Amino acid sequence: MFENIIGQRTTVESLRSELARGSFPRAVLFFGPQYSGKLSVALEAARVLTCALGTGEWTCECASCRSQKELLHPHTVMLGSRSWDVEIAACADSLLRGRRSSSQYLFLRAVRKLTRRFDTVVWDAEDSKVRAAQEKVTAIEEVLLALSPAQELPPEKKLSKLLEDVTAACVQLAAVGRTESISIAQVRKLGSWAHVTAGNSKKVAILENVDKMQDSARSALLKLLEEPPASVHIIMLSPRRAAIMPTILSRLRPYPFEQRSPAEENDVLTRIFREEPGHFDGLRSFFLAWKEINPEKLRQLSRSFMEAVINPQQTDIDVLADLADLFPSDRRSAREKNQREAVLSFLEELTLRIQEPVRRGTIPLETAEEWTGAIRESLMRIETFNMSPATVVEALYISMRETARRDADGLAAEALP
User: Phi then psi for 203, rounded to 5 degrees?
Assistant: First the structure.
């Protein structure tokens, strides 16, 4: 079990031991940075928990393991938002270049990480938006039949067209799910699902980015966590343990995920995405390239932003104008979509830039915590509440500069990496 996971040896070994003993907790939290493999490990844990033979080996051919590998198992559900379209496009490219069964699984799983978010067991089937999404899911699944590992892949030209069609449909579907945090209605539906027997099978619910849940949904989730049915396991994912409400955290067993080493990230790129060794300096650069965002320009912009925040003599900068330069000229016409992508990537880059001087002790911890809190709030305003990126960035700049002026004695431009 967990043969397909790269890195996270300590956490994976703990999970392997608990699953083998049958002592895996009914409610857990996987927390750690982006690209650390939290969802992959959660899906593998779900496969092992539902394995009909009880061995959980990756090569197991039981019906449950086969359906889990293709993310079709009826007793595993996924909730929560994430960025899907870039991963799907990258996996489509890997399949087109590689034409291997492993690449087929990779693409199917990337697509179904999106489509399974619209299972009717956790949505109101009468909602017009959900009905529209279900129509798109049905159309996508019809195309995926031709791409199943059980089928021989079509010729290159036809395969390219099928992948293009699925990717385009997923972009439309992702637009529905991108701004959706887990709602109170979904949590209530999840509770109803959890209390319906699944015979001899385990049931697994994977909740991603639970730190973005609103208070009403958290309260509803707390009720489910207080007395989860014996056959149900709840796996929650979040970038930060501290972002989880204490009353919820007290009912979860936490498992830390570390940032993968450069060698491990390179291993992911070469083994999973079939990239040449050393072509990218990490997974973040790889996915930024798929967004057509220049990583070096992004780093330069984040430094200019922080210099303007810290230095009281620095004149204000036009961040939004600079963000437009992150994209190739042929993408600057799609202003609204580009601006959202650029701002989200920029906010992530700011968080990374703040972490290094904190580790070196050149920025006061209290200041850094206030800044990172403001950045997280900005991300939520865009992703969850769909606020204007321009308005959010302007408010963030003002907030961070006010903090810097208040804490001026502990800050200096040389504090930046």
Answer: -120, 140
Where does residue 273 rank: exposed (0-12), middle (13-18), buried (19+ CB within 10 A)?
buried
CATH class of 9-271: alpha beta
Using CA atoms, how far apart are residues 342 and 348, in angstroms rounded to an integer?
Answer: 10
- Chain-centre distance for alpha carbon 296: 23
Identify the sign of the CA torsion 390, 394, 396, 397: positive
Token pair 């936490």 is found at 254
Give DSSP secondary structure letters for 166-223.
Answer: HHHHHHHHHHHHTT-PPPHHHHHHHHHHHTS--TTS-EEEEE--GGG--HHHHHHHHH
Give the CA distances from residue 69 to residues 48, 56, 102, 365, in Å, rounded to whole numbers and listed in that order. Answer: 11, 12, 11, 43
Determine the length of the chain. Answer: 417
Q: Which residue has the tokens 């990239």?
A: 275
Q: Is the pTM of this model over 0.85?
A: yes
**How many angstroms separate the CA atoms of 234 and 207, rounded?**
8
Tell how strand 232-238 and strand 203-207 pair up. Answer: parallel
Q: Tell me the DSSP string of 112-123.
A: HHHHGGG-GGGS
CB contact at 8 A, 327 and 339:
no
Residue 29's SS3 state is strand
pLDDT digits 0-9 by tens, 324-370: 666 665 554 445 566 788 888 899 999 888 877 777 777 788 888 89
Side chain identity at 23, as an amino acid letter?
S
Helices (H), 22-84: 38-50, 63-69
Per DSSP, the three-state class of 233 is: strand
CB 306 within 8 A of CB 362: no
Q: Strand 253-256 and strand 232-238: pairing? A: unpaired
CA distance 88 to 143: 14
Task: Locate the domains of the chain by residue range.
Answer: 9-271, 291-415
